[in-house]
Prior knowledge:
Blueprint: E1 12-14, E2 20-22, H1 41-59, E3 63-70, H2 80-83, H3 85-99, H4 103-141, H5 155-191, E4 205-210, H6 213-223, E5 231-235, E6 247-253, H7 260-274, E7 280-284, H8 298-308, E8 312-320, E9 323-328, E10 333-338, E11 346-352, H9 358-368, H10 380-393
Parallel strand pairs: 3-7, 3-8, 4-5, 4-6, 6-7
Antiparallel strand pairs: 1-2, 8-9, 9-10, 10-11
Amino acid sequence: PFVVVIDTVSPTALRRDGSALRLSALPPGIQNQPTELPDSLTDAAAIAANACEQLYANSGTTVRCRVDFDTSIGDETYTTLKSSTDFTQQFVSSLCLASIEGVMEWKQNGVMKLIQAKTELTEVREKLQQMGSNGDDDDDDDVDFGEYPGDAASTPTTAAADETEAKDDDTASEEANRLSAREAELLQLVANDGADPSFRWTGPTLRIYFPDEGSAALARRDWQSQVPPCVEFASCGGVQVSDNSGDAIIVFYCPRASEAEFVEEILYDIEAKRGEGLKMSVMVNPLLVDMGVTGFGMAGRRLRERLIDGLAPAYYLRTLPWGALTRVWPQLFTVWQEDEVAEGGYRMIKAMDRLPSNPEVEDIYDIENGDMNAPQEGMGFLNALGDFVNGMTKL
């Protein structure tokens, strides 16, 4: 697998097996356009998923990419795994809708069922309310005055009327029970957003790998009703599934350095088995090189060369104490600063064609706010040396 970046692409293209790709042409010059900030977490997840799909569409073959999402602003109260759970859950759902064949139709069918269920639920409740009102009126008028002499002649007629009324009551009771049962079914359908719990997915799948079996088990419990039925859960280092023949996308969620060996093994195995059937592999917030595990020496460098350097950056979003840094493929990285008078509460202060280092980001902010002079032209080497020295002194 490899990444091929194409500057422009026609609206139609072919995969290696000859099947057509449904592409939307990239706007001319989009590589030089700045990246806007997302409106919400849901918007960010959808943008990231679309960027991954665009990467695959432009490569025409299996692609490895990464998505980086960090809104902790340095707060280490929660782990990266915990703080990015909501984003990853929505990202996985959006990626399924964008890239897994049949999921969009499943979603549309669910929406239609949801609309129909809400309409029918209103009708059922109106009928139940009407039946209850009629029953209350009848109960208020029922008064038993007992038997009086001379009423014997009317006894057969009264008995027949009572029998008819009893039958009517039984029929009404059965109808009420039927409507109540239907109301419960409709409420469950609405709670599931129109999805049928008994539905079994038989199409391509997206398999997401968690760092450990505990995290995967929690996701099976908490995510099952929140993601499309094509999503399968697994873990790095646990018992691996024997059948991954339907996997079209694999996602590694916050893989750590301690799982690097398992990630490589799983990735190479599925790529070999699935071939062109595997559209993409996505790593969300990967941290595969760590001083305490792999070190930054030869082992770390080789791991980076084998696994990390080949990842195409599809989406990047990191919040800062005073703003944010973002980028969506294939556009520019942009640095944003909070500004109450700007539209949306942020204004862009810098656009770059590469990911700036942490010292560079702070320098951009200081220069923008007059706390630092912009570097002079021709001083690039000295500025870079200064950044290196400053970075080393902060370690």
